[in-house]
């Protein structure tokens, strides 16, 4: 499990930040992205994938979350 | 020297790496690269923030240096106790020239050294009692201080002192904040972790102290984050922001006070100069208080104008007009500076090796003077710093992370830049090689370099370093080859020949 921060960029896209690795990246796809179900598998621009427990859409961004690493692009 | 091609740069790296034993060579190879602007993520071309190799000369500092020296130290109305043996505090005292206004020893304490001066018995029996006594003494001797931070040196962590308990008890007794900072020098691979620890301690012990309190806000409140007022940098930045109509609520942490830091969560926008040392707290404030942050660059007129416009874009038309007004006001002054120095500096090359933000931020300032940065590197950067650097640097230019003494010397011998911007540890090595060096950690006892006023000083300093006649007189006349003897202005060398 890793602590990550999901934010929103100026154009409204999701951004990803992994403090431990100083990894800033764009989120290119998110499995669930609706008001009542949000999260699931997220895919990063660098090819890595993480899993966020599906939850209600957070009220505001950025938000710190726990995520499971499925496949990190190293 | 003219630009190297990618092949030449890579060949140079390979040649320099040849002296290392195989294992070290493999490790160091990851830290040296020819810049490739097409790479999206720096990780693919350069590795950073790794432990330095034993046996090579590194110029990195420790976590204590990052916390006490960089982040906490400049907060002027607090007393920063170097908790542990005396050396760490004494040898880092007042070396960084973070200027401040105040009466030292009465209401400000920036250049003083407070230490618990650990002795053998403190290591054996623990130093908590000594710390408690020291806190009481500070309160008696310096009643106008606003708070204390306890900056741990290595032994504190090794012997397991409970400085948090002492701090809490002391804070209760004297009703002022005491912040225990676990920045023991052995933590992390460089001073970078010290920045992080210091940011976290500000977050945990200081930042939320005025939550819910009344504050007379304006729509134009900003804070300057990550400007340490070296030689007056923060002042040179602050006047520009104020001239364009913004209200600077706090300065982190150069010439900053505890009250300013506590009021920061009330601002509308955090302006982040040194990304490396203070992005942590900016991200925290973004999440907790919803304050956006913006990186800016106040080195050189081109970047200043860009930054002022980017800052203004976050506000209404009043500020946008203000930014244009400020840019227009200083334009003639900048043109005069460039007209004076550009002809003298045009085409000169620079290599940089510093920390924090400068290896990428000052590139624009050199380019404004017609100079070219042919190599750059950080002492303690992380991936995200290189992500930002790759875009700023020319293609195929040299990048070096945590360069060793040997590598840096070899690179500079081969690339023969006209100027090196690095620290005091490198200064005399290169000056003896006949290459001018400006100490870019604290601006070589000059400054400020930020802002429009700073650029005028920056240009003058670079010209003074490069155009100094001493560099052509490095070889004594009796060592010169007769054919190499060229007529000089004085003509005295000819006589010797």
Automatic annotation (TrEMBL), chain A:
Highest taxon in the source lineage: Bacteria
Classification via SUPFAM superfamilies: NifT/FixU-like
A Pfam short name: NifT
Biological processes annotated in GO: nitrogen fixation
InterPro entries hit by this protein: NifT, NifT/FixU_barrel-like_dom_sf
NCBIfam families from the UniProt entry: nifT_nitrog
Protein name: Nitrogen fixation protein FixT
Source species of the chain: Accumulibacter regalis
TrEMBL record, chain B:
EC number: 1.18.6.1
Required cofactor(s): [8Fe-7S] cluster; [7Fe-Mo-9S-C-homocitryl] cluster
Gene3D superfamilies xrefs: Nitrogenase molybdenum iron protein domain
Keyword set, alphabetical order: ATP-binding, Iron, Iron-sulfur, Metal-binding, Molybdenum, Nitrogen fixation, Nucleotide-binding, Oxidoreductase
One Gene Ontology molecular-function label: iron-sulfur cluster binding
Entry's Gene Ontology cellular component terms: molybdenum-iron nitrogenase complex
InterPro entries documented for this protein: Nase/OxRdtase_comp1, Nase_comp1_asu, Nase_comp1_CS, Nase_Mo-Fe_asu
Ranges where the record places region Disordered: 473-497
Catalytic activity, as annotated: N2 + 8 reduced [2Fe-2S]-[ferredoxin] + 16 ATP + 16 H2O = H2 + 8 oxidized [2Fe-2S]-[ferredoxin] + 2 NH4(+) + 16 ADP + 16 phosphate + 6 H(+)
Uppermost EC category: oxidoreductase
Annotated SUPFAM superfamilies: Helical backbone' metal receptor
Start and end residues of each Nitrogenase/oxidoreductase component domain: 62-466
Oligomeric and partner information: Tetramer of two alpha and two beta chains. Forms complex with the iron protein (nitrogenase component 2).
Function as written in the Swiss-Prot or TrEMBL entry: This molybdenum-iron protein is part of the nitrogenase complex that catalyzes the key enzymatic reactions in nitrogen fixation.
Family membership: Belongs to the NifD/NifK/NifE/NifN family.
Name of the protein in question: Nitrogenase protein alpha chain
Organism: Accumulibacter regalis
